[in-house]
Amino acid sequence: MNDARGFSAFPPQRAGARFATSWWGRAWIKAMEDTSLDQVLLRKGRTYAKIGRLGPITVSPGRIAAVADSEYDTVVRVEQLTDAEWERFLDQVAAKSGHIAALLDRDMPHDLVQAAEDAAVPLLPAVGDLEPECSCPDWGHPCQHAAALCYQVSWLLDADPFVLLLMRGRGERQLIEALQGRDVPDTAQAARGVPAAEAFAAGVPPLPEPPPSDVPFAPPALEPGTGAESVDVAALRVLAASAAARARELLVRGRLPELTEYQDRVRLAAEHDLDLGLESAVAAWRHGGADGLEVLESAWTPPRRDLARARALLEAGWEGERPPPIEAWRNRWTLGSLQLRYGRDGRWYPFVERDGGWWPAGPPERDPSALTHHLQGA
């Protein structure tokens, strides 16, 4: 009962579209990029993915496939889990009632993946786990078509982690049926009084479709009040617009990131042009959301392998003879009037000098050489 799933072809994306916003989607891309032997083909793959050079995608146990440029058969094979590995994975899912709820909510909990790895069940691919094939004449590993397929599949993974489980060998229906024969832990069952088999037998009703993105938000019509205890109508309109936007995001993504009070203040200022004295934080949020804000305000020490790979990309992609000297400190590289900061999300953020400090200058990229136009005058 291993059912394949088909997905419509992705249309051309807007400028600045990102790949993989979920942590498991980023892990998928990292496995593919770390396997690549040619960064030029990766850049072509990113472009092909964004401009829609692939047809519909088919995901089935052990493989993903699409037709590229209307003529090349492109396949990426993924090793399937054994029956014994699936049993160990199901044990980990059933060991905590929240795991089942998270999967049904289209989330992949970190602790579930870690527990699976501890039980010798590799859910997320590692370097060398993806085997690309393509009928095009290019000998790249992967070629630009297979890379584009992997980049587009990261969007599918963002929306539904069951796509990853299907590639590993079993789809959502099989997993739910297998879990129906297992009870949640005694503590959860005592608190809820319902075994997992009964609780999830009927499935979860789908959320309604989000409204079209071009439908403007109509704020509530309120009259300003009077007196010391009157409601600030302007502030209420901002909060209503924010709630509407986040409700739509919840319908589109299935979940919302957890924000601190400070992050939420920056988000409100960025989305509604509020003057809260947070100019640089607002600029960082507009370019990279919560990840961009973290890069602005904190430094960390990335793995040496990530930095070595980024330096090779920078040197290979520089349009001149060689890039200017790099002043490196932790995750921050300064190249004259340009500073590149490496985020925990695996992307490089550009900063330029302004008023004696560093100011967010644009959206991030995985390839740091794609950001050097800020310095080269492009």
TrEMBL record:
Keywords: Metal-binding, Zinc, Zinc-finger. The keyword Zinc-finger applies. GO terms for molecular function: zinc ion binding. Coiled coil: none annotated. Pfam families: SWIM. The keyword Metal-binding applies. Residues 119-154 form the SWIM-type domain. This is Putative Zn finger protein.
